[in-house]
Amino acid sequence: MALFTNVYLGDSREVLAKIPDNSVDLIFASPPYADRRKNTYSGIHPNKYVEWFLPITKELLRVLKLTGTFILNIKERVINGERHTYVIELVL
After folding, report:
1. Are strands 64-72 and 24-29 parallel, antiparallel or unpaired?
2. Pick from 75, 91, 84, 78: which is nearest to 46 by CA?
3. How confident is the model at residue 84 (pLDDT cuts 50, 70, 90)?
4. CA–CA separation, 86 vs 61, rounded Å?
5. What is the pTM of this model?
6. Helices (H) and strands (E) in the chain, counts
7. Which residues on neighbouring strands pair with residue 29, listed in sequence order?
8. How far apart are CA 51 and CA 67, in angstroms?
9. Is the CB of residue 41 less than 8 Å from the CB of residue 88?
10. Cα atoms in the 13 Å half-sphere on the side-chain side of 37
11. What Å distances lie between residue 32 and 14, 29, 42, 65, CA to CA?
12. SS3 content of the chain, % helix, strand, coil (to 5)
């Protein structure tokens, strides 16, 4: 059995469009945290994060094989000791 490895690095909004349906075994994503990387991603507000990320997840699901794995590296935004709920909302 032949094993093929392709690593894609870049903005998922651009890279995913070039990948065929049901062709990826593993996706490891580390999207920008809410209110971070303002110069690159316009600093997504925690209240808008899920709305911003859901279109990307549709593309992730499209390219991921039925037997594939998706790993999301993300953490909550903490302000004055309180965690924002955008991460749990995204997971749900």
Report:
1. parallel
2. 84
3. confident
4. 20
5. 0.76
6. 4, 4
7. 72
8. 26
9. no
10. 8
11. 15, 10, 10, 25
12. 40, 20, 40
- Give the whole-angstrom CA distance, residue 24 versus residue 34: 27
The predicted-structure confidence for 17-71, as pLDDT tens digits, reads as follows: 999 999 999 998 888 777 766 666 667 888 888 998 999 999 999 999 999 999 9
Chain position carrying tokens 């997504």 = 44
CB neighbour list of residue 9: distance below 8 Å, 6 or more residues apart: 15
Tell me what pLDDT residue 33 has: 76
The SS3 of residue 1 is coil
Give bridge partners of residue 65 from the DSSP assignment: none
Cα gap 84→78, rounded to integer Å? 6
The per-residue b/e assignment along 1-12, b for 16 or more CB within 10 angstroms, e otherwise, is eeeeeeeeeeeb
